[in-house]
Structures are given as C-alpha cells and as structure tokens.
Amino acid sequence: MEFSNQLILGGTVTKPPKLTTSPAGIKHLRFVFDHQSEQQEAGLARRSFVRILVVLSGSEATQWTNELTVGTQLQVTGFLNRIEDKNGVGKLVLHAQQLVKI
C-alpha cells in the first residue's frame, strides 16, 4: 500500500537561501520558510505558525538562487521528509517540487 505525501504551503522566505552541491553533483537550494494563518478547529479560530526548512533540488535550484531573498512570498508544493541533524535530533523538511511567487 502506498500512502500520499503532498503539501502545499504559502508563506515567506525568512533566511537567505544557500545553494550547495552534493558529492553526486546535484544542486540543492535550502531556505527557511514561515507560514502564518488562521484556521478553524472544532468551530474555533486557531492561529497557525509553521517554520520549516525547504529544499529544492536539481536544475531548478540554480534557476531560483537569485530569485529568492528574505521576504519573498511563495507557494511551495512538495513532500515531507524527516532528517536528523548531527546530534540525532529529527526534523521535518519540505522537499519542494514546485515554487510559485505570490
């Protein structure tokens, strides 16, 4: 059985993007992304705040390098994946498959 893993999130770039290249030669553009909204839950308004690392890989990473700055508003479509930092602490990362400026 295969499960779905897709997320569409609108928000703002909050830390400068960094372009890196993996040992396999794949470009990766990483940036921190903030989302704020008001959602309905159990009939009540709830403030939602999400800060997440976004990674865009491949040829599009280079194309977006000069397009993204702190304050750029985007809609990011992609999938979630878990990574561990050097201390073994797990984090969710949004792997972008599409970026759209809003």
TrEMBL record:
Any GO CC annotation of this UniProt entry: primosome complex
Keyword DNA-binding attributed: yes
Entry similarity comment: Belongs to the PriB family.
Annotated Gene3D superfamilies: Nucleic acid-binding proteins (2.40.50.140)
Top-level lineage group: Bacteria
Subunit structure: Homodimer. Interacts with PriA and DnaT. Component of the replication restart primosome. Primosome assembly occurs via a 'hand-off' mechanism. PriA binds to replication forks, subsequently PriB then DnaT bind; DnaT then displaces ssDNA to generate the helicase loading substrate.
Protein purpose: Involved in the restart of stalled replication forks, which reloads the replicative helicase on sites other than the origin of replication; the PriA-PriB pathway is the major replication restart pathway. During primosome assembly it facilitates complex formation between PriA and DnaT on DNA; stabilizes PriA on DNA. Stimulates the DNA unwinding activity of PriA helicase.
Biological process terms in GO annotation: DNA replication, synthesis of primer
NCBIfam families linked: PriB_gamma
UniProt entry tagged with the keyword DNA-binding: yes
Organism: Pseudidiomarina piscicola
InterPro entries reported for this sequence: NA-bd_OB-fold, Primosome_PriB/ssb, Prisomal_replication_PriB
Keywords: DNA replication, DNA-binding, Primosome
Any one GO molecular function term: single-stranded DNA binding
Name the record gives this protein: Replication restart protein PriB
